[in-house]
């Protein structure tokens, strides 16, 4: 190869490789620039899309009514009061719509059996509860145990207040198969289920836990919608103090007879 041929090859190589960096970057694909969606993000988006059709939520309508939507919450699907309304009308409509939405949600929760602390008879009952309710807190204990009885009292208080969650309990002696599959860290134990799957286990909740501290712990795991300052006393005595006194007096009378 003569010198002129070498110069042409070298010149071609140099011109092809020493273009302006900005010009070269324009020819890169999104994957080469690191802007493409990762495999993890793709799988996460697919999981969210699969879960979305099963979600139902309530939204305030501009006329003060309530709309029921299915799928993920979207700001574009929320209706706000009309621009022509004054501030008082806007607040009134929003408040009225919120009250209607809360009432509709409460009605749906009660229809599903929320608001009561249910005893499950067997493992099949647990599987049905997890499948039928969006959020489940299931108390596993040995019937008659002191720690189990104390946990019953706390969960009884919570179930009357947090209607968004289904509360239940199961005697471990009635769940041999489940105990063989789930390694419990101790008793009593709480199994937390969300959208048909057991997602967390809370064990060794001792007697130092108050109703409020248990509610906070469940809220941290998104098992309930926890808020500061909630009064759980009405959940401890859902029939009222007078009714509790009457029942106590009746029991004492029966014992004396």
UniProtKB/TrEMBL annotation:
Basic and acidic residues compositional bias, start-end: 21-40
Superkingdom, taxonomy of origin: Eukaryota
Xref: Gene3D superfamilies: Glutaredoxin (3.40.30.10)
Residue segments, region Disordered: 1-40
PANTHER family named among the record's database cross-references: THIOREDOXIN DOMAIN-CONTAINING PROTEIN 9
Protein name as it appears in the record: Phosducin thioredoxin-like domain-containing protein
Species of origin: Prymnesium parvum
């Amino acid at each position: 190869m003569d010198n002129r041929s070498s110069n042409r090859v070298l010149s071609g190589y140099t011109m092809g490789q020493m273009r302006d960096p900005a010009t070269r970057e324009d020819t890169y694909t999104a994957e080469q620039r690191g802007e493409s969606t990762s495999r993890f993000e793709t799988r996460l988006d697919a999981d969210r899309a699969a879960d979305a059709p099963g979600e139902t939520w309530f939204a305030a309508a501009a006329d003060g009514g309530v709309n029921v939507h299915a799928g993920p919450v979207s700001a574009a699907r929320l209706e706000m009061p009309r621009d022509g309304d004054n501030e008082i009308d806007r607040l009134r409509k929003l408040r009225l719509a919120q009250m209607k939405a809360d009432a509709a949600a409460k009605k749906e929760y009660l229809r599903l059996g929320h608001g009561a602390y249910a005893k499950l008879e067997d493992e099949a009952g647990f599987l049905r509860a997890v499948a039928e309710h969006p959020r489940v807190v299931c108390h596993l204990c040995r019937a008659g145990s002191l720690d189990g009885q104390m946990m019953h009292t706390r969960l009884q208080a919570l179930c009357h207040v947090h209607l968004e969650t289904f509360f239940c309990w199961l005697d471990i002696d009635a769940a041999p198969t489940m105990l063989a599959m789930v390694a419990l860290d101790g008793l009593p134990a709480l199994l937390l289920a969300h959208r048909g799957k057991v997602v967390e286990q809370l064990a060794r909740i001792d007697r130092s836990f108050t109703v409020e501290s248990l509610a906070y712990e469940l809220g941290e795991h998104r098992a309930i919608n926890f808020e500061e300052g909630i009064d759980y006393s009405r959940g401890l005595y859902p029939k009222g103090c007078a009714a509790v006194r009457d029942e106590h007096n009746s029991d004492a009378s029966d014992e004396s007879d």
